[in-house]
């Protein structure tokens, strides 16, 4: 195989890898956004349930119930968010490296070849 064919094969492999990584990046981005939306929704539900209750039912003595529920939801979502955000960062970094390698191969392939006698 000549070097040009190797470069073409490598470019094809990198393009395929880039497409797979791009799909993973979009998946993790969408999942992370969904987690944030769900977190905001659950916190809003807790907030609204506290303020729409009869003041006699939820008094200052029971402040710890919505606080504990909110803290538990925050803890659970923070673990999930951190996990997906770190995976997103890792996949995005790998995707960026793949794009740079593909572009580098493309520029090497299209670069003009050196002539032995430029000024002859």
Automatic annotation (TrEMBL):
Region of interest (Disordered), ranges: 99-120
Domain of life: Eukaryota
Keyword Transmembrane found: yes
Stretches that traverse the bilayer: 32-51, 63-85
Keywords of this entry: Membrane, Transmembrane, Transmembrane helix
Protein name (database record): PREDICTED: conserved
């Amino acid at each position: 195989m000549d070097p040009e064919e190797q470069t073409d094969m490598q470019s094809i492999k990198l393009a395929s890898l880039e497409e797979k990584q791009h799909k993973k990046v979009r998946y993790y981005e969408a999942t992370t956004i969904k987690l944030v939306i769900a977190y905001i929704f659950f916190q809003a539900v807790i907030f609204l349930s506290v303020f729409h209750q009869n003041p006699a039912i939820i008094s200052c003595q029971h402040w710890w119930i919505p606080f504990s529920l909110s803290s538990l939801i925050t803890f659970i979502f923070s673990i999930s968010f951190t996990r997906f955000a770190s995976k997103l960062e890792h996949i995005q970094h790998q995707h960026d490296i793949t794009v740079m390698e593909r572009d580098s191969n493309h520029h090497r392939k299209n670069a003009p070849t050196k002539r032995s006698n430029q000024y002859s």
